[in-house]
Amino acid sequence: xxxxxxxxxxxxxxxxxxxxxxxxxxxxxxxxxxxxxxxxxxxxxxxxxxxxxxxxxxxxxxxxxxxxxxxxxxxxxxxxxxxxxxxxxxxxxxxxxxxxxxxxxxxxxxxxxxxxxxxxxxxxxxxxxxxxxxxxxxxxxxxxxxxxxxxxxxxxxxxxxxxxxxxxxxxxxxxxxxxxxxxxxxxxxxxxxxxxxxxxxxxxxxxxxxxxxxxxxxxxxxxxxxxxxxxxxxxxxxxxxxxxxxxxxxxxxxxxxxxxxxxxxxxxxxxxxxxxxxxxxxxxxxxxxxxxxxxxxxxxxxxxxxx
Length: 307
What we know:
Elements: H1 5-13, E1 16-17, E2 20-21, H2 32-35, H3 53-61, H4 64-80, H5 87-105, H6 107-120, H7 132-141, H8 143-156, H9 158-171, H10 173-176, H11 180-189, H12 198-202, H13 205-225, H14 230-235, H15 240-253, H16 261-273, H17 281-290
Helix pairs in contact: 3-5, 3-6, 4-5, 5-17, 6-13, 6-15, 7-8, 7-13, 9-11, 9-15, 9-16, 11-13, 13-15, 15-16
């Protein structure tokens, strides 16, 4: 089992302080199973921020035979429905496999998405240019509060929600401009989910997490794209270069999109309608069937709309 940076910090900082134990128990360390996850659910200390992405990226970089095997596996899950996987989760799994196939065909998008995800969220020790969002938040909150925050983040899908709201905000750039950074923070703070503990709210955990994500996710996409500066790119109105990698990370990261409407609406919907993704019609129909209340999953044939 591969322990990540945070498990080492927690272990180092576990101690008696003013007669109180800092941590009564630790979350399961982030590990290979989480990083390579192909099915829903995250139970480790990464809070969902490193769930599934590296495994999906590795398949996308592999041979066409490996990608086809992954597609076949997800199709089998839809047909046989393994224990613990419901119809909605199986349908999302099939769509996720189509996104991996898309990344396999579009290596530039794969490069942008993977670089952004690693720069922001991966925390390999010795790679000081990776995991900058989580490292910065750990430095801001301290070892005890970051563990509490990540437990809350895991239960509320905070990190993929943050990316979904970022993707939506970027697409609204012409309307929002200077408001978009603050808007994401406000939406995350007002979500109707498990309430953020008071001490984390006073520590401005959500605001700092959002600011760090904006800083490192966008900057890394711009850097790897060779698009000059973020200011130049935004001034030219070319937001698609930014938004597609963010959407890809969100749908690959989300531990269970069947329970996460924002990821389905702001990330899955444009991917489903985006011609280059080529999500199969049979998968579109499944999503429309299992999510009847989601108007952004229309049933039927026809050419996908451009986002």
